[in-house]
């Protein structure tokens, strides 16, 4: 099941003569990865059957977050109304919801009695309370335009019908037709008008997790996962990722922080990282006709994913 897709990134592997990686540090001691194996050498297994469970209340779900209650789940919708809903995971019923000051949000995480939301399409990370009242806004490390590589996989589109066809779609006016090498100016790829005074605007983070004093964010423009100190906003570590569309992330079963699951919407798979070193130990490949991965969270033995056509899905890990 391995392909040549990752072969071009072999340069990230150090020479065979490099020192062997030391034993993984204790939890709470995340570090900058070294001596990463080539991504095309990572073991691959097929995902279990994808189950389409129910429609989400709003039509463009883009991120998921756990709560202390295993039956409850937060969903952030990237539609122009930017709803954040607390749902019953068993049936999708909305228990309560609020709106936040974000644009095209992609990820959220509950942090005690507050929440962090990645406002993707204006490259801000919002800190707010659990009613949506803003506490502070921060810049997104690694934000910018998602540059394209010649060997990138094509963008995936969902095979699922839009759950709410009568509901308006779109995130609003921000960043319209301004993705990848399309500058939104009706010009050839990457090209700006001759009177342009600024370059790329771009986008920010997708998924976000919290680990004590640190936020863990997936930033597609940088093709990396960042560990950000919440107090100093300095970066402790960055982990490179294989693809160009890292989306939902999750800790392992029972919030086991020795494991980080990252996804890639275009590669249509999940990667299991060592939670302290970033090394990828396994790739779980979804079927070619599966929904597109947006938000993702491990709940028990299941990986829950939302597709931004308005559906909640899952498969057994």
3D structure, described in words:
The protein has strands at residues 44-46, 51-55, 61-66, 72-77, 83-88, 94-99, 107-111, 114-119, 124-129, 134-139, 208-211, 214-219, 224-229, 235-240, 246-251, 259-264, 269-274, 280-285, 296-299, 302-307, 311-316. It is an all-beta fold and 317 residues long. It is built from no helices and 21 strands. A five-stranded mixed β-sheet has the order 1-18-17-16-15, with no helix packed on it. The chain has a four-stranded antiparallel β-sheet with strand order 2-21-20-19, with no helix packed on it.
Q: What's the story with the biggest beta sheet?
A: 5 strands, mixed
- Output the strand order for the largest sheet: 1-18-17-16-15
Q: Summarize model confidence as the mean pLDDT.
A: 86
What would you call the shape? globular
Give the CA-CA distance, first to last residue: 18 Å
The class by helix and strand makeup works out as mainly beta
| Rg | 19 Å
The poorly predicted ranges are 1-27
Counting DSSP H or I runs of 4 or more residues, the number of helices is: 0
Which percent bin holds the helix content? under 10%
Q: What is the element string, with H for helices and E for strands?
A: EEEEEEEEEEEEEEEEEEEEE
Task: Summarize the model shown.
The chain is mainly beta and 317 residues long. It is built from no helices and 21 strands.
């Amino acid at each position: 099941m391995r392909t040549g897709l990752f072969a071009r990134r072999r340069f990230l592997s150090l020479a065979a003569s490099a020192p062997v990686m030391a034993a993984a540090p204790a939890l709470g001691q995340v570090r900058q990865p070294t001596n990463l194996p080539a991504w095309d050498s990572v073991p691959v297994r097929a995902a279990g059957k994808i189950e389409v469970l129910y429609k989400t209340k709003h039509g463009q779900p883009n991120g998921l977050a756990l709560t202390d209650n295993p039956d409850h789940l937060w969903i952030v919708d990237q539609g122009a109304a930017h709803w954040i809903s607390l749902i019953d995971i068993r049936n999708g019923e909305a228990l309560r919801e609020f709106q936040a000051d974000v644009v095209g949000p992609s990820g959220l995480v509950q942090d005690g009695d507050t929440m962090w939301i990645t406002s993707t399409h204006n490259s801000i990370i919002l800190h707010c309370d659990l009613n949506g009242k803003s506490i502070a806004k921060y810049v997104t490390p690694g934000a910018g335009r998602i540059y394209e590589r010649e060997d990138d996989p094509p963008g995936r589109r969902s095979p699922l019908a839009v759950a709410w066809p009568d509901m308006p779609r779109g995130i609003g006016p921000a960043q319209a037709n301004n993705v990848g090498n399309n500058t939104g100016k009706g010009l050839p790829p990457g090209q700006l008008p001759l009177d342009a005074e600024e370059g790329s605007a771009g986008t920010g983070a997708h998924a976000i997790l919290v680990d004590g004093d640190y936020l863990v964010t997936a930033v597609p423009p940088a093709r990396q996962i960042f560990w950000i100190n919440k107090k100093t906003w300095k970066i402790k570590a960055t982990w490179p990722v294989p693809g160009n569309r890292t989306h939902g992330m999750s800790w392992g079963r029972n919030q086991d922080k020795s494991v980080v699951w990252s996804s890639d919407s275009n590669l249509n798979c999940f990667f299991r990282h060592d939670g302290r070193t970033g090394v990828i130990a396994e790739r779980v490949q979804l079927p070619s006709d599966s929904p597109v991965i947006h938000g993702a969270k491990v709940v028990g033995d299941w990986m829950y994913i939302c597709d931004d056509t308005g559906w909640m899905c899952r498969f057994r890990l």
